[in-house]
Amino acid sequence: MAFAWSKFSSPASFYPLAGKMIPWFAWGAAILTAIGLWIGFGLAPTDFQQGEAYRIIFIHVPSAWMSMFVYLVMAFWSALYLGFNTRLSAMMAQALAPTGAVMTFIALWTGAFWGRPTWGTYWAWDARMTSELILLFLYFGVIALRAAIEDPRRADRACAVLALVGAINVPIIYYSVKWWNTLHQGASVSATEAPRMASIMLTGMLVMSLAAWFYAIAVVLARVRTIIVERERGAAWLHALPEVAQA
Amino acid sequence: MTEFFAMGGYGFYIWGAYVVAAIAVIAEILAVRSKRRATLAETRLVAPTELGE
Amino acid sequence: MSTMVVAQSPATAAPGAVLPGVRWALARDLRLALRSRAELAVQLLFYVIVVSLFPLATTPERTQLSAIGPGVLWVAALLASLLSLPRLFAADYADGTLEQIALSPYPLESLVVGKVLAHWLTTGLPIVLLAPILGLQYALDNELLVVLAAALLIGTPVLSLLGAIGAALTLGLRGGSSLLALLILPLYVPLLIFGAGAVEATRSGLGATAHLSLLGAAFLVALVGTPFAAAASVRIALD
């Protein structure tokens, strides 16, 4: 790609770019959410087996997908940071962790509220939910490690290593938990299995997933802008910004 | 309308799920906003240096 | 109290040598560990006490104990490992020795392997030997005890190897040991599943081959990969 990405690899040039991108993704997320919920609650029919309860998938599945996707992106930026030592990569990784944790929490909570009416229990120790729980611990680990280290550079590097070690382990953890679960349940019944999808249900899920993605982008860009302000504290370009220069 | 909220008897679970999800999202947005405000306020107090980092 | 007094100073060693680095770090850390035998004994005692707590908290009924036994013995091993991991680097870090060690001609990765090996010999191996005896408290029969010991034998080195990464990342941090637990326990989960699962599989007649093979694979992968991650983490902490 001929586009000069390197132009935006400095915090100073990325800051205004991110600022311009945020409204687009924020509004996009809002509109897509409205459409997705209208499809999910207005258009999609009642499920034959699960009744109305299945409608939780329109928030559960997107948040679960995002929780895993955000971790991969965080690992990607971490790898980029360790490879090229660009501050902005570390800042992006730092900005992604809290959003990933929120997505994971939403996935766990909505999964539990889906499990109770359909499978009789809030928490069934099935493979996906258990892996999701461990993913939450992995996010907390990265966040806690960053909070514990005062030197920003050491924190960047330590969290990058931890994120990558975690990323390598996520598939291992998932498959081992799946194994553990199937061995103990015999004919494995996933506690939160989506109903046979009418295509309108799938559409609703996809629209909500896109909405979740746009939301995550908007929030992470907003957070990284604050991180840039915090870590580039003395910079001249920063003090020239209207939001800083004004009293 | 009440039918919509009742959701065939599953209302507690569906709204329990969606409302908490909405709270989490709103909380995240508010947290990002307040952190930004606080950081900008702190930054105004710092004198700019030429070198920056 | 750590010290640089050893038989062969690393300054005279051939630069880049792998095995001599392992041997040097192993000899040094073993010597240091055996000087504080009381500390090692306490960590082992911790294992025994934790294992003894569960029957008191649940039931003395033998079939139920037998059901939870493998899991308890494994979880306690994980916790004992966590308790002893700071010992890997913390003392050296505190008095500046770690920095000097990192500057030696030996590759840091091989020094890490040596340290991990010393850690396993003083923490993991005693657990491997002790667990079958404690397994008798849980009414596990001999076949299960053998499988338990085998699984722990393969698994505890991986606990030490993975733990080294966590220990290095949390060097010198406030609340380091709780943070270490948060960071490392999720990574331990597959080992727990396959290690305790091996005993369960034997009990149910499926045989433990698959579990033990997976543990073995985990060991090989960890042996190859974790020294690099751990050495990188040490360098991060030292910078």
Describe this structure in words.
By secondary structure, chain A is mainly alpha-helical. Chain A has helices spanning 11-43, 57-84, 87-119, 127-148, 152-185, 199-231, 236-240, 242-245. Chain A is globular. Chain B has helices spanning 2-6, 11-45. Chain C has one domain. Helix content of chain C is 78%, strand content 0%. Chain C has nine helices and no strands. In chain C, α3 (62-84) runs antiparallel to α8 (176-203). The interface between A and C is medium-sized, with 26 and 28 residues.
Topology:
The complex is a heterotrimer of chains A (247), B (53) and C (239).
Chain A: H1 11-43, H2 57-84, H3 87-119, H4 127-148, H5 152-185, H6 199-231, H7 236-240, H8 242-245
Chain B: H1 2-6, H2 11-45
Chain C: H1 19-35, H2 37-57, H3 62-84, H4 90-94, H5 97-103, H6 108-135, H7 142-169, H8 176-203, H9 209-238
Total separate domains of chain A: 1
For the biggest sheet of chain C, the summary is:
none
How many β-strand stretches of chain C?
Answer: 0
Unreliable residue stretches of chain C: 1-11
Structural class, from secondary structure content of chain C? mainly alpha
Global shape of chain C: globular
Biggest protein-protein interface?
A: A-B, 42 and 34 residues
| Annotated CATH architecture of chain A | Up-down Bundle
Oligomer: heterotrimer
Total number of strands of chain A: 0
Percent of residues in β-strands of chain C: under 5%
State the distance separating the first and last CA atoms of chain A. Answer: 42 Å
Using only CA atoms, what is the Rg of chain A?
20 Å
Keywords:
heterotrimer, A: mainly alpha, Four Helix Bundle (Hemerythrin (Met), subunit A), 8 helices, globular, C: mainly alpha, 9 helices
Task: Describe, in short, the structure shown.
Chain B is mainly alpha-helical and 53 residues long. Chain B is 75% helix and 0% strand.
